Amino acid sequence: MAQTTERPAGPASDRPPVRAPRVHRAWFVAAVTFVTIIGAAAFASLPGLLIEPLHAEFDWSRGTIGFAVSVNLALYGLTAPFAAALMDRFGIRRVVAVALTIIAAGSILTVWMTAAWQLVLYWGVLVGLGSGSMALAFAATVTNRWFTARRGLVTGILTAAGASGQLVFLPLLSWLVEHHGWRPAAVTVALAALAVVPFVWLLLRDHPADVGLAPYGGAYAEKPAPVTGAARRAVTVLLKAARTGPFWLLAGTFAICGASTNGLVKTHFVPAAHDHGMPVTAAAGLLAVIGVFDVVGTIASGWFTDRFAARRLLAVYYALRGVSLLFLPMLLAPAVHPPMLFFIVFYGLDWVATVPPTIALCREHYGDDSAIVFGWVLASHQVGAAVVAFAGGVARDVFGSYDVVWYASGALCAAAALMSLVIRRPQTPLPL
């Protein structure tokens, strides 16, 4: 992690250059980003734990609760490209600090809700907007600005931060829901989001030039001027990217990724396991174990992305995920048994392993606008998640089980594997 590139003492080059520190500042920025994403991951851990308690207390249908979760997931994705542009305009620190505050407000307000529309407003709209503003586009922006070398590895590490947060918070939140109700769990989410705001504000820096450094593995460059018209730029980049085939293939495969992870497993695995007699705490514990292996799988995927063709990695990841989901309905039982543990390990290694190669493909095809393009690709991920979060709840209400959703998701993953192989690597990044 040592960096030997010399840097100017400041933006002007009239002072003598000094040698960069032995451990490059980029790694400290990555560490702060990792901790921030972990602290904010609490909000992503809660939706699957809320379905049964809210159904029992308010008699809301699972479809209604799933709709609130789907609004959350859709806004999470649709906000991301605008957030990437806002980071270019106002800086990473400001955007992320405000986003965390909005998440905390939305979560704490759910404590006093009495009607389903309030769940949609507080958890769906507020938490969705806040979480979307510091979604994976946050990790992509930090990686693009602070790293030239090791981008795949850093992307994998930052992506794994969400899984690490899931590992930290799921057992605690499930215990709170089981023994004290869902309200203390919502308060915990709010406090966790607020707790990382000082880290962001005091320790995060927007650009290497802010501290007179070159990106890790790259040459020194002046900090670009703030980009005005964030919303217009996000839409302009979308319109230009939409004229290219790779964008639609990436968006389509990532929509299936969201449908088969956040929309399906993260939202409905706990209630599905509970339908088969498994205690909520045991099912939540299995999701936490997925988080453990997700960390390993995503970091490994980042390492692979630096060395192998990204489209081939995606094809392998989606194919393996589809096979595992087809077997899941046969594995659900009142107690945890070895075949279920094998599924958890296998599926966990693949949970968000798709992110590093997807970001790499965005970077290869779209150059400097890749963070915003990835924001739109992420939007498709969350729209896919939102559709299945809602459809899964409706399927449970109509059919009395989730089996049809597991099988349909497995088939979609097979389609995503084929779509990934169609993506071709350009000779040079396409101009946007």
Automatic annotation (TrEMBL):
Protein topology in the membrane: Multi-pass membrane protein
Statement: the UniProt record of this protein carries the keyword Transmembrane: yes
Entry keywords, A to Z: Membrane, Transmembrane, Transmembrane helix
Chief location of this protein within or outside the cell: membrane
Annotated Pfam families: MFS_1
Compartments, as annotated in UniProt: Cell membrane
Membrane-spanning segments: 26-51, 63-83, 95-115, 121-140, 152-173, 185-204, 247-265, 285-304, 316-335, 341-361, 373-392, 404-423
Listed SUPFAM superfamilies: MFS general substrate transporter
Keyword hit for Membrane: yes
InterPro entries in UniProt: MFS, MFS_dom, MFS_trans_sf, Proton-linked_MCT
Sequence ranges assigned to domain Major facilitator superfamily (MFS) profile in this UniProt record: 28-428
Name of the protein described by the UniProt record: MFS transporter
Species of origin: Streptomyces wedmorensis
